[in-house]
Amino acid sequence: MAPPIQFITGNANKLREVKAILEPQIEIQSQSLDLEEIQGTIEEVAESKCRRAADLVNGPVLVEDTALCFNALGGLPGPYIKWFLDKTGHQGLNNLLAAYEDKSAEAVCTFAYSPGPGRDPIIFQGRTPGRIVPARGPSKFGWDPVFEFEGKTYAEMESAEKNKISHRARALKKLQTWFESQQETA
Ligand SMILES: O=c1nc[nH]c2c1ncn2[C@H]1C[C@H](O)[C@@H](COP(=O)(O)OP(=O)(O)OP(=O)(O)O)O1
Ligand SMILES: [Mg+2]
């Protein structure tokens, strides 16, 4: 049996999806800590969050950072999507692209795992291509209603359906493969 993983997040929706995707193969324990998020590339943000979490927990930790990258804007808002969503809402995200024909976007999920304080984090990233559209479907989780993948917004999908194709699922597939290989060599 694999040991449980400590997943550090302040976001209950993220935690629900991570558990739905990984359990029962990998047991997830969690702590809610509001970790400082630096300014930098997607990977730098996840890595620094992970180092901070490993120090605070003083043990192995998993963290995640989600970015939403608009192709017409050279990848922005990227890791700053949380603040854009908070301040401008779903319509505001659409308005950002009003001047551009290209509404394509990429949802990027970056997990960082550290074996403990002072140890280099390992990064697992998943990307799902899509489009920014006027909101459709229930507003349960962040920007789900405005991110469309193959004709449906994330919000219009059953959770099992989202969890098959999402940026988060794709990243967790890589994490799971790595975790299993670690168990074999342990
Ligand atoms: O699948 C998703 N579908 C829709 N929205 C999503 C998703 N995943 C993250 N989100 C939102 C939450 C936050 O507004 C921003 C990411 O910011 P991000 O810093 O990664 O998340 P957070 O601060 O809520 O939790 P954490 O404590 O793990 O940092 O995009
Ligand atoms: Mg955050």
TrEMBL record:
Where would you find this protein in the cell? Answer: Cytoplasm; Nucleus
Transmembrane segments annotated in the record for this chain = none
Family of this protein: Belongs to the HAM1 NTPase family.
Might you give the EC number(s) for this enzyme? 3.6.1.66
**PANTHER family (alphabetical):** INOSINE TRIPHOSPHATE PYROPHOSPHATASE, INOSINE TRIPHOSPHATE PYROPHOSPHATASE/HAM1 PROTEIN
Cofactor field: Mg(2+); Mn(2+)
InterPro entries assigned to the protein according to its UniProt record, in alphabetical order:
ITPase, ITPase-like_fam, RdgB/HAM1
Assembly and partners are described as: Homodimer.
Q: How is the cofactor bound?
A: Binds 1 divalent metal cation per subunit; can use either Mg(2+) or Mn(2+).
User: How is this protein annotated for GO cellular component?
Assistant: cytoplasm; nucleus
Pfam family of the protein (one): Ham1p_like
Tell me which residues bind ITP. 9-14, 49, 65-66, 141-144, 162, 167-168
Residues holding Mg(2+): 37, 65
According to its UniProt entry, what is the function of this protein? Pyrophosphatase that hydrolyzes the non-canonical purine nucleotides inosine triphosphate (ITP), deoxyinosine triphosphate (dITP) as well as 2'-deoxy-N-6-hydroxylaminopurine triphosphate (dHAPTP) and xanthosine 5'-triphosphate (XTP) to their respective monophosphate derivatives. The enzyme does not distinguish between the deoxy- and ribose forms. Probably excludes non-canonical purines from RNA and DNA precursor pools, thus preventing their incorporation into RNA and DNA and avoiding chromosomal lesions.
Key words, A-Z: Cytoplasm, Hydrolase, Magnesium, Manganese, Metal-binding, Nucleotide metabolism, Nucleotide-binding, Nucleus
Gene Ontology MF, one: nucleotide binding
Gene Ontology biological process terms, A to Z:
deoxyribonucleoside triphosphate catabolic process; nucleotide metabolic process
Q: Which reaction does it catalyse?
A: ITP + H2O = IMP + diphosphate + H(+); XTP + H2O = XMP + diphosphate + H(+); N(6)-hydroxy-dATP + H2O = N(6)-hydroxy-dAMP + diphosphate + H(+); dITP + H2O = dIMP + diphosphate + H(+)
Q: What is this protein called?
A: Inosine triphosphate pyrophosphatase
